[in-house]
Amino acid sequence: MYVAVKGGEAAISNAHRLLADRRRGDRSLPAIGIEQIVAQLGLAVDRVMAEASLYDRSLAALAVRQARGDMIEAIFILRAYRTTLPRFGYSRPVETGAMLVERRVSATYKDLPGGQLLGPTFDYTHRLLDPSLLNDEAVDTPLERDEASEPVMRVSDILAGEGLVEDDGDMPDGHVAGDITREPLEFPMARDLRLQALARGDEGFLLALGYSTQRGYARTHPFVGEVRIGEVEVELDMPELGFAVSLGRVQITECQMIAQFKGSAKNPPQFTRGYGLVFGQSERKAMAMSLVDRALRAEEFGEDIVAPAQDEEFVISHSDNVQATGFVEHLKLPHYVDFQAELDLVRRMRREYEAAQNTDTDLPEAAE
Asked: For the chain, which residues make up each domain, given as ranges?
């Protein structure tokens, strides 16, 4: 905590009280509840859960409320809370192929085994303000959830059946998945660690990088093989029981992006994959993540690294919104001593510059 002058702690305490007052807002209006945020601001809750890497809707909603709707502040709060929680173990890898889907679309095949499932989406709305929402005139009769009753195959399996796409997620034998929440980042990174970092990276940053790859700042021409949203089961191995037990189901968004690869001396021409997976309903983030993932595999495929989205150190080191916020916002905290040193340095350099200018002016003119 910075306490710049005597009385600084009192000022900070008063600032906290003022923040709480502004958070409550107009007392003539009912206070917004956690249940309301979970039920009606679900996409905000999902983003906070994803980038804080903690799946708990109530806690994410609490963070949104505490942060007055500031998403990055809410993510910061929830991630900090996450560090206080005990860890009982690692779950088994979730089987996204067994997902019970609520939404499933593909831009590569019109007719799919299991069909396309549009689900809840803004894709076909007019993006116009809806005045009916001012008076809660929207449909208030709940609809039944339209989801698959059983798992459906992945679109990438169609290409895999013809041998036209690379294998899915191959890792070296004996590879143990890392954990970026417990291990410092080191470059170059294995793909599993890189995907972890991207999964909790800032959506806006990844969106900008993904957009840059489509504008020519990476040599890929991607297609959305499939985006799916739904619930998967999470299981934990119990050594004392000798089998895994289900911990429940979580909602996730998964995207597989496919891109053409002309082949190399070791690999035939085929499609390659970019992968994105995040908590909740967040397909924009999953799509951006899959674009960046594919761009970051440039070296793996012998492609030239010519764009920011292909530079692993650049992408991963700047993708975390909590770290980025810390570096940017710390600039508004007291830096009096540092600035005085800079001020003295600039004054000295200015005196030396002016002295040199005066010396040049006093020199006698050269004889003709």
From this structure: 8-82, 96-123+143-323
